[in-house]
């Protein structure tokens, strides 16, 4: 079985220590991923540090041009990399699956590559002129999760490179090979040392986070790991962007025509089998509309073929790993034990593979684990409400605040409800509709810092103010 390598200073590095990666749909072995040693991590950071001044010294036009070449490489290898995503992560090639993830990788490369952060004159009068410049921070440590493994790595890497930083990226130990392969291909056009990888579990991530030469960490993953990274950053004062999970509420306003919005609602909850940070994870429905919303979602679920995502026509894949599969089972069983009704699904499917059906759960409320915790799987609790104030209060009754959505035919009324939700983004009549120009980030325990667009680019720079005293006017 093939062994894969990580990338340090433009060279592929293999390791005597490896771990096996299996396809979550079939259990078949896909190959062995390397485990980077402490020395490997130190060398990767040293390579990034050595390459950084030269990369930062390139003109904006040169860096933009090289990143556009990266977009071209990703386009040329879309199918190869999408196959890795499907085999390692589980999302199907079709539907909003791995080809879609690769299109996002290309888009989230082209857009930051074309952005500029011009020098701002922040104050000017007869006596002084104050200009704000944006400089690269230095070496960025990027730590990625397993749910959208290539796309989220791109979100971290490309703005960092655009701004003149260099990067050491660690993919998740659940989905490393596709990302290692993507970075190998990106290195065919990037200068050596500009984009490096290390590979392994959280202990390898911890080595990267603690390294004194890492200036900023871009992290996407669980709140638990984010708290460890905050602790570790005490040592090197690394700046942090933390994109943690969420428990996004979706509120359907009374009397909304849901049939016309059914596709957006279904995929807003179930894209990538619900293993998406900003998916609808709790649905609040007015009691008069409950039956029609349930029938609509049930009808959609019945039409969606589930299976091995390498097969044609499949649009729903497995849950990615055993830990997540068990968590989904546990939360559904707990809801059942506490009086919930299972509208659809609710029982794991026979193996091989971690297949769990699209599951709709009724007769639940805040206070049940399935509603209060992030399930990160193909299960949606549907909660009845009798007035909108109650729905808003329940939506906000959570520790996290990544995304949320409000669904309604009166857009003004929907916007008024949206303004009262405590989260980084509130979508109206869509959910999880991220865009490379639109800032994205969480509040509360969902983390801090923004990604995407100009705000995201600013977040991978350090400000430099140059303040100049003007000479006094010469008396005539
Ligand atoms: P995780 O926290 O277990 O792992 C994420 C990454 O952190 C992995 O690469 C892991 O190896 C690494 N890691 C673990 N311990 C570490 C340590 N001590 N120091 C440094 N790195 C360490 O998360 P996960 O299970 O891979 O991802 C799922 C979670 O991510 C969910 O909560 C989900 O909502 C969240 N998520 C958030 C976003 C977002 O943009 N906000 C996007 C996707 C996923």
CATH architecture of the largest domain: 3-Layer(aba) Sandwich
Helix content: 25-40%
**CATH H-level name of the largest domain... which superfamily?**
Aldehyde Dehydrogenase, Chain A, domain 1
Reading off the top of the CATH hierarchy, the class of the largest domain is best stated as Alpha Beta
Nearest-integer average pLDDT: 97
Reading side by side through the largest sheet, how are the strands ordered? 14-15-16-13-12-18-19
> What structural class should be given to the helix and strand makeup?
alpha/beta
In total, the number of strands is 22
Distinct small-molecule ligands in the complex: nicotinamide-adenine-dinucleotide
Number of domains: 2
C-alpha end-to-end distance: 85 Å
Output the number of helix runs.
15
Provide the CATH topology of the largest domain.
Aldehyde Dehydrogenase, Chain A, domain 1
Low-pLDDT regions? none
| Main sheet overview | 7 strands, mixed
User: What is Rg?
Assistant: 23 Å
Shape: globular
Tell me the strand percentage band: 15-25%
Keywords:
476 residues, seven-stranded mixed β-sheet, 2 domains, binds nicotinamide-adenine-dinucleotide, globular, Aldehyde Dehydrogenase, Chain A, domain 2, six-stranded mixed β-sheet, Aldehyde Dehydrogenase, Chain A, domain 1, single chain, 15 helices, alpha/beta
Describe this structure in words.
The structure is a single chain. The chain is α/β, with parallel strands linked by helices. The protein has 2 domains: 6-244 and 446-465, Aldehyde Dehydrogenase, Chain A, domain 1 (3-Layer(aba) Sandwich); 249-428, Aldehyde Dehydrogenase, Chain A, domain 2. It contains 15 helices and 22 strands. The strands form 6 sheets. It has a 7-stranded mixed beta sheet with strand order 14-15-16-13-12-18-19, with helices on both faces. A 6-stranded mixed beta sheet has the order 9-8-7-10-11-21, sandwiched between helices. Strands 5-6-22 form a 3-stranded antiparallel beta sheet, with no helix packed on it. A hairpin with a 3-residue loop joins strand 5 and strand 6 (128-136). Helix 2 runs antiparallel to helix 4 and helix 3 (78-89) runs antiparallel to helix 6 (176-186). The N and C termini lie far apart (85 Å). 50% of the residues are buried. The model has no long low-confidence stretch (mean pLDDT 97). The structure holds nicotinamide-adenine-dinucleotide. Nicotinamide-adenine-dinucleotide is lined by residues 143-147, 152, 170, 172-173, 201-202, 205-206, 209, 220-222, 225, 228-229, 243-246, 277, 374, 376, 402, 442.
